[in-house]
Amino acid sequence: MRRFLLSISDGRGFDIGLVSVPLAFLFAMAGLPLIYNIVMSFQEVDMFSLGTFARPFVGFKNYVTLFSLPETWPILGNTAVFVIASIAGQFTIGFGLALFFWTGFPGSSWLRGLFLVSWIMPGLVVGAIWNWILSGDFGVLNYILRESGLISDNIFWRSDPDFSLWAVVIANIWLGISFNMILLSVGLSAISQDLYEAAELDGANVIQRFYTITLPMMRSTIGAIISLGLIFTLQQFDLFAAITAGGPNNSSNVAQYWAWDLSFRQYDFAQGATVSVIMIVFVMIASVVYVRSTRHEVRG
Amino acid sequence: MTANQIELSGVNKYYGAYHALRNIDLKIRKGSFVALVGPSGCGKSTLLRSLAGLESISEGELVIAGARMNGVPPRKRDLAMVFQSYALYPHMTVEENLTYSLRMRGVGKAEARRKAEEVAATTGLSNLLGRYPRELSGGQRQRVAMSRAIIRNPKAFLFDEPLSNLDAALRVHMRKEIRALHERLGATSVYVTHDQIEAMTMADHVVVMRQGVIEQQGAPLELYDRPANQFVAGFIGSPAMNFVPCIAGADGRSLVLDLGTPQTVIAPKAVAAGRALTMGVRPEHIELSSEADATLRLPVGAVESTGAATYVTTATLPELVIVLNSRIQIRPGEMIPLRLDQSRLHLFDKETQVRLA
Predict the structure, then answer these.
(1) Contact between chains at A299 and B134 (C-beta distance less than 8 A)
(2) CB-based contact (8 Å) between A205 and chain B?
(3) Å between A106 CA and nearest CA of chain B
(4) C-beta neighbour count of B17 within 10 angstroms
(5) Strands B189-193 and B59-64
(6) Exposed, middle or buried by CB within 10 Å (0-12, 13-18, 19+), for B201?
(7) Chain A residue closest to B52 (CA)?
(8) Which of A144, A178, B240, B313 sees the fewest Cβ atoms within 10 Å?
(9) CB contact under 8 A, A201 and B89
(10) Residues of B with CB below 8 A from A194's CB?
(11) Distance, CA of B57 to CA of B48 (rounded, Å)
């Protein structure tokens, strides 16, 4: 008994006590809802059984039904396009900007800070702004494209099924650029200037220095930012709600919006839960990549 | 062609209004080992970085191996630099670090590998080629940094305080190793340090800098024996030279030292009577004498013994430090008879601090 008390005041017991508090919190606030969601995807749920947890189990019926729906594969395809295009755009432009500000021209750090404005704005506000920019009749994007001769007729970004998904992608890229840029800037500034000077004396030109020093030294940052990008993009809901609402005819619908739509507009809670479980799998994979890439940091 | 590998004439460097290098004229002979030494902020690193091309010079001319190098980017100067931080590429193995410059120049893989093994064999890195820098000790990293420079066979080696991150014992060892390497390769080396002992022991030619100006340059012992001014006199030698304000005696052959109380000694050379001067004498050039031969009798302030030598500090104003190579029994407060080595007194003008010719 005395040893047990001693271990709690100073020893393994104390360590376990400290760890258990956040673990209990995480389990209650994140673990339970997650488990509840997974269980629900294997049950038959309707408006009348919402209040109870003891619902009839139906095995994989919800999954089978889901994949027999005609809209399932197009929506999953849209999700893939949305994620890949958003991350590619955010990362490339963000990296470009990070390199640009890294040159350290007068006022560069001030201007870089200003870029965060896009990131701190609520998604619904960003959506509203882009609604104006993308507007088919009088939108400024159409004006620019038309005046520069790239298009002859207005594009109805939000209502044309060929463009509706891309309308959200453009807005999402804009929203994510600053976050990518800031994280990549931090990664860049962590590279010692000495390395570049050594490489320069060793005869490497700008492009060789980028490929042999910058990129390999940024590997963990890049891994982290792409997996974070995947997580954030799969969470992007506000822009869909604000810009296209998944339409027209599901042409811009993605899994995360669809899950909400199924659960809370069509009240098909089981199908909504099933879509979320599929998404959880992808987010889990991204999280593993994220944890691994931040662990394998190169230390000088 | 001249035998000068590096030649700087009238070089000036400004950072905005700050004048970092002032009228630098420096000729570095092919195969020589030149040390740039001075207190921090004296411009020695700026000068080295200007040679490397990492800083641009504002005025003047820089010639390396007969070609004007102003404005030529570092990668085209064919100089190798060893950094204080070593600047090893952390994501590359030792072998990849060594062959980096070769690969950038398009040397084939097999050829690069062969050269890496060749260089590693001479610097004792053969069994470390597969390791990453983070798996090496400080001394090993230092060797990798040196090997990376050697493998290129450059026009000159530039060293930027390469030993300052090592512990004292290793530093003494690496000093010899760098010097031996220099002799073996017959290379031209420019070595920046704030440690005058490194400069004195390693270099053929020492350049003492202060506030962007070359105060004096020459062979190490020449700087020790005939410092051009009070700054160089105080900077070279350890413990530092003693300086005593004095006035030339009426006969022009003696000096009246102001050590709190006036003391008269014979001047090393004729000086104008009444001229205000500063006399310098190194701690190792003051010796204990018999009462009869004494030129000075001074009270003892503190006595410290290292075993090999005894450091005596006198209770005068300014204090004199005396190094005696023997063990003696003296106590603070005692008066001791001393003799100054007449031929090794240095005289500087009180105002300009310049050595009297």
Answers:
(1) yes
(2) yes
(3) 14
(4) 5
(5) unpaired
(6) middle
(7) A201
(8) A144
(9) no
(10) 83, 85, 87
(11) 11
What rounded mean pLDDT belongs to chain A?
Answer: 87
**Is B242-349 CATH 2.60.40.10?**
no
Contact B105 A197 (CB under 8 A): no
Among B230, B198, B202, B203, CA closest to B216:
B230
- How far from the centroid of its chain's Cα atoms is residue A65's Cα? 28
Contact between A166 and A77 (Cβ < 8 Å)? no
Sheet holding B189-193, edge to edge: B79-82, B156-160, B189-193, B33-37, B205-210, B213-218
Angle at B2 between CA B1 and CA B8, to 5 degrees: 125
Query: Is the bond preceding B262 in cis, omega lying within 30 degrees of 0?
Result: no
Q: Are B115 and B97 in contact (CB under 8 A)?
A: no
What are the C-alpha distances in Å from A5 to residues A9, A19, A21, A42, B222?
6, 17, 18, 44, 75
CATH number among 3.90.1150.10, 3.40.50.300, 3.40.50.1970, 2.40.50.180, domain B4-235: 3.40.50.300
DSSP structural state of residue A195: H
The one-letter code for the residue type at B140 is Q
Task: For residue B246, report the phi and psi dihedrals to the nearest 5 degrees.
Answer: -150, 165
For residue A202, the chain B residues in CB contact (below 8 A) are: 75, 80, 100-101, 104, 148, 152
Query: What residue spans define the domains of chain B?
Result: 4-235, 242-349
Could you tell me the two tokens for B2?
């001249």
- What pLDDT, on a 0 to 100 scale, did the predictor assign at position B39? 92
Chain A nearest C-alpha distance from B103 (Å): 9
Tokens of B289: 């004498």
- Residue A3, CA distances (Å) to A14, A16, A17 in order: 12, 15, 15
Q: Give contacts of B64 with chain A, Cβ < 8 Å.
A: none
DSSP state for residue B229 in the 8-state scheme: B
All domains of chain A in start order, with CATH: 65-295 (1.10.3720.10)
What lies within 8 Å, CB to CB, of B166 at 6+ separation is B138, B139, B142, B174
* Cβ–Cβ contact B100 with A under 8 A: yes
* Beta strand B189-193 pairing with B33-37: parallel
Which chain A residues are within 8 Å of B79, Cβ to Cβ?
201
CA distance B97 to B88: 7
DSSP string, A144-173: HHHHTTS-SS---TTT-TTTHHHHHHHHHH
* pLDDT, tens digit only, all 357 positions of chain B: 457 889 999 999 999 889 999 999 999 999 999 999 999 989 999 999 999 999 999 999 999 988 899 989 999 999 999 999 999 999 999 999 999 999 998 888 999 999 999 999 988 899 999 999 999 998 899 999 999 999 988 999 999 999 988 888 888 988 998 999 899 888 899 999 999 999 999 999 999 999 999 999 999 999 999 999 999 999 999 899 999 999 998 888 889 999 888 888 888 888 888 899 999 999 999 999 888 888 888 999 999 998 889 999 999 989 999 999 888 888 899 999 999 888 899 999 999 999 987
- Average pLDDT in the A28-49 region? 87
pTM of the model as a whole = 0.81
Do B75 and A203 count as a contact with CB atoms less than 8 A apart?
Answer: yes
Cα separation, A225 vs B317, in Å, equals: 66
Could you tell me which residues come within 8 angstroms of residue B187 by beta carbon, excluding any fewer than 6 positions away? B31, B154, B156, B157
